[in-house]
Design a protein that fits this description.
Layout lengths: L5 E5 L2 H4 L3 H9 L3 H26 L14 H4 L1 E5 L6 E6 L14 H6 E2 L4 E3 L7 E4 L5 E4 L2 E3 L3 E2 L3 H8 L1 H18 L14
Antiparallel strand pairs: 1-3, 2-3, 4-9, 5-8, 6-7
Helix pairs in contact: 2-7, 3-6, 3-7
């Protein structure tokens, strides 16, 4: 099984009965739509709380020869609400729109999953030669590069989330409790409370 470059934080109806703040909300008489809204807000807060540990676990290069920091994959870690099966959110690596998009890391799958196909030949998509910096920092120009060894994957996203599972549970329950105590609005967004 390949490593994933994102981790979904899902709330099932089974786990809802185990959380005391939800039983409080059910007793208070909130309807299902407002409860889903509160669960979505708590899921978003939980995913945002996981961004810092995932960024800390992200692999980085010490420095690049072109003056960049080499922290592109670290900068690309983000939290987003899920598109389907709401309520839920995920923490993962932003893909970026193009290779030049510095907010994303187009190569995220290679870092988290690695490569198993060997030999692996890299050819230029545009132009006649590849241009990159070697491990010693000197510029390299080549028509193609053949990778002879497999690249092992580093599933730092799943590792960081599993190491900080208690933080995720605490953040979710504290956020949900605060939202329910403040009241769930019928319209508009829920303002997330500041947690200690």
């Amino acid at each position: 099984m390949a490593a994933k470059s994102r981790v979904d934080i899902e709330i099932s109806k089974k786990t809802i009965s185990e959380i005391s703040s939800l039983s409080l909300a059910l007793a208070a008489g909130f309807d299902e739509k407002r409860l889903d809204k509160a669960l979505q807000a708590a899921s978003n807060a939980t995913a945002k709380a996981m961004v810092k540990p995932v960024k800390a676990a992200a692999p980085t290069r010490k420095s690049r020869s072109d003056g960049g920091s080499g922290n592109r994959i670290r900068r690309a870690v983000w939290a987003q609400p899920v598109m389907r099966d709401k309520p839920g959110a995920y923490v993962g690596i932003r893909p970026g729109r193009t290779r030049e998009d510095i907010k994303g890391a187009y190569y995220r799958w290679m870092v988290t999953s690695g490569t198993s196909r060997v030999p692996y030949e890299i050819r230029p998509k545009r132009g006649k030669v590849l241009r990159f910096f070697g491990s010693d920092g000197t510029p390299v120009f080549a028509k193609s590069v053949t990778r002879k060894a497999a690249v092992p994957g580093r599933p730092f996203v799943t590792d960081a989330v599993s190491k900080n599972a208690q933080l995720a549970l605490d953040t979710f329950s504290m956020t949900l409790t605060a939202i329910i105590q403040n009241g769930i609005p019928k319209k508009g967004r829920i303002k997330l409370p500041k947690l200690k």
